[in-house]
Amino acid sequence: MNTNILKQQIELKKSMLCVGLDVDLEKIPKHLLDFEDPIFEFNKAIIDATIKFSVAYKPNLAFYEAYGLKGWLALEKTIEYLNKNYPEVFTIADAKRGDIGNTASRYAKAFFDDLGFDAVTVAPYMGKDSVEPFLAFKNKQTIMLGLTSNPGAKDFQLEKLSDGNYLFEKVLERSKSWQNSHQLMYVVGATKPEYFKMIRQLVPEAFLLVPGIGAQGGSLEEVCEYGMNTNFGLLINSSRGIIYKSNSLDFAEAAADEAQRLQLVMKKYL
Ligand SMILES: O=c1ccn([C@@H]2O[C@H](COP(=O)(O)O)[C@@H](O)[C@H]2O)c(=O)[nH]1
């Protein structure tokens, strides 16, 4: 999918919400464990309940890989379900891949061609040749880690270089010269709102995927205030805050209520 459809969806739904599908069998309602594929049943119910308020879904691969083959099959069924029933929705494989070019091109094929995701997250530490194989796929987006939401972001990303810039600034700046860089988006944590202005100067046109509201304590209002651009420019993720709002029979309804609450805040800025 190109970003035009995403922009139309944001305008239509008055939402920049991305629902994170980070499924943990210990946290989902117990009655779902009786199904043959509880992960998929959970995802399907969450997707159907939140679709009115959300423009994107982001399964984090760790939560599927942790269950081996069963987890991978549930991931396949989830992306198939999204692509078949809601083709207008933007899908992100949060895989944070990064490897030599030859290997990176296999990752890109797996997520874009075989699974059919619209976007995949990548770690830029191995440089240009580890990211460009993803960018070679037309109509697909590559979401590069920019300034992450976790405390450890300060260990490398916020290291000051001799020219006075932060390492993450250099990474973002450099990435703009890569082939098909117009297909790049960037991960920026909601927990670091003070850097949004700087990031917007570096990548004014790009979409930012912003995790860190809800469970990690970032402010949705601050993200909207400082992170938007003239094309909206934001996908704001919440995973645990939505999908585990309730772990009883009403879990999907509770997720929808929380998604709507977030959407109503976003609507004020759209
Ligand atoms: O900087 C980053 C990059 C990725 N994530 C991922 O986003 C979600 C956040 O989940 P919450 O439950 O809403 O906290 C999760 O999949 C992370 O791995 C991030 O949090 N920060």
UniProtKB/TrEMBL annotation:
EC number: 4.1.1.23
Keywords recorded for this protein, A-Z: Decarboxylase, Lyase, Pyrimidine biosynthesis
Enzyme class per UniProt: lyase
SMART domains for this protein: OMPdecase
Residues forming the catalytic site: 96
Pfam families associated with the record: OMPdecase (PF00215)
Sections of the chain in a coiled coil: none
Pathway note: Pyrimidine metabolism; UMP biosynthesis via de novo pathway; UMP from orotate: step 2/2
InterPro entries: Aldolase_TIM, OMPdecase_type-2, OMPdeCOase_dom, RibuloseP-bd_barrel
Residue ranges of domain Orotidine 5'-phosphate decarboxylase in the record: 16-255
UniProt-listed GO biological process terms: 'de novo' pyrimidine nucleobase biosynthetic process; 'de novo' UMP biosynthetic process
A single GO molecular function term of this UniProt record: orotidine-5'-phosphate decarboxylase activity
Catalytic activity: orotidine 5'-phosphate + H(+) = UMP + CO2
Keyword Ubl conjugation: no
Family per similarity comment: Belongs to the OMP decarboxylase family. Type 2 subfamily.
NCBIfam families: pyrF_sub2
Protein name as catalogued: Orotidine 5'-phosphate decarboxylase
Lineage: Bacteria, Pseudomonadati, Bacteroidota, Flavobacteriia, Flavobacteriales
